[in-house]
Amino acid sequence: MKKYILIAFAFLPMVVMGQKEYKISGTVRNFDLKRIYLNYSTGMVNAPMVNDSAEVIDGKYAFKGRVGNATFATLKTKDMAQGMALVVLAPEQYIISHEGSLSSTVISGSKTQSDFENMKSMEKQYAQKAKLLTGEVAIKALEEEKMEYLYAGYIKKNPGSPLALYALTRYASTGHGIDVARAEPLFRLLPKSVQNSYEGEAMAKQIRYTKTFLLNSSIGSMAKDFSLPDTSGKTVSLSAYRGKYVLLDFWASWCAPCREDNPHLKSAYSKYKPKGFEILSVSLDVAAAKKKWLKAIHDDGIGAWTHIADLQSVTNKAVELYGVQGIPQNFLIDPSGKIVAMSLRGGALEKELAKIFEN
Fold first, then answer.
1. pLDDT, tens digit, for every residue of 174-215?
2. How far is CA 318 from CA 201, 223, 232, 241, 314, in A?
């Protein structure tokens, strides 16, 4: 299975909405615990994680803070010796009891937590039903029933729930993007407070990018022109490659699957450059990682072709124009400017070029 890294906006399950207070009251029974640690993601760029701790006095501890929509949190000891408890943290009150270890935890008081646990329980029930079925048609029918009843049904009944966008992601995710036909109608059911939340805006952006991808980046579409600076600051336009076969390649220095594919690009370029093949690589690196971008080009030995980036944002103008939601991603463009192939990973690029140049 080929690896693929989603761009940050594309999958943001359960992060910040409007900041409201949560409270946790915990009880520890039948094991010794002096301090407990609470860790969770805020979804915010400047303060992505909260790492809090509380002293356990006479078997009791407490936390309070401010979160937005909902986020996955963990309760654990510093060395993880007593296991871990998962909390779906929302602006609610939690009563938590640990019996013998943190692995044996009961959480009450939170509707968000209760809804999440019910959802996971139903998922297990559907998984058990699937094991009893034979035949692809029956299994697909059960999977669709689960999607409609468990996720879409939850959203329709609880559009303002902190779990609504989580359920929508489960319902509409394709693994490397989102099914717009499934996501958009349900997204419209959500109240504006949810749509305008941090992760609501991320979901809206993902829907928009997917629609752009389908419109601008499908095979047979004419490639949209854009310009970005190269490694020396010189502006380079895609249209400068008109008249040649060019691979428009999206990557980043921090993307391991992209780096793994670079030897294949290097081989294809060396073999087919004399016949009129070019590569234009668009990096998603930002200014803080410019040195790493340049070093990756050098270390991977891919400096023979042109590399461009705006170094301002992961979602630069080329990413937006082509609706790219994850990397590595590429588009093979013919001399007339038409996209003739895409997502050519591994040896697939050389096979495609062989059809063009050796037949």
1. 876 789 999 999 999 999 988 988 778 888 988 988 888 888
2. 20, 11, 19, 15, 10
Q: Which of 180, 187, 200, 319 is nearest to 249 (CA)?
A: 319
The Cα 145–Cα 125 span in angstroms is 12
pLDDT of 12 reads 39
Q: Is residue 242 left, alpha or beta, with left meaning phi > 0 and alpha meaning psi from -120 to 50? A: beta
**DSSP three-state, residue 243:** coil
CA–CA gap between residue 110 and residue 115 (Å, rounded): 9
Tell me whether residue 46 is exposed, middle or buried, using C-beta atoms within 10 angstroms of its C-beta: 0 to 12, 13 to 18, 19 or more: exposed
Helix, strand, coil percentages for the chain (3-state, nearest 5): 40, 30, 35
Dist CA 280 CA 307 (whole Å): 6
CB atoms within 10 A of CB 313: 12
AA identity, residue 196: N
What is the DSSP secondary structure assignment for residue 9, as one 8-state letter? G
User: Alpha-carbon distance 56 to 73, whole Å?
Assistant: 18
CB hemisphere CA count around 148 (13 angstroms): 6
| Three-class secondary structure of residue 233 per DSSP | coil
Q: Note the pLDDT tens digit of each residue in 66-121.
A: 887 788 999 999 888 899 999 999 999 999 999 999 999 999 999 999 999 999 99
**What percentage of the chain carries pLDDT values higher than 90?**
74
Closest CA to 333 of 352, 346, 308: 352
The letter for the amino acid at 18 is G
Checking DSSP bridges between strand 329-333 and strand 5-6, what pairing results, if any?
unpaired
Check if the beta carbon of residue 311 is closer than 8 Å to that of residue 290. Answer: yes
Instruction: Provide the H-helix boundaries in the chain.
Output: 111-131, 136-146, 153-157, 164-172, 180-187, 192-195, 198-216, 256-272, 290-299, 317-322, 348-357
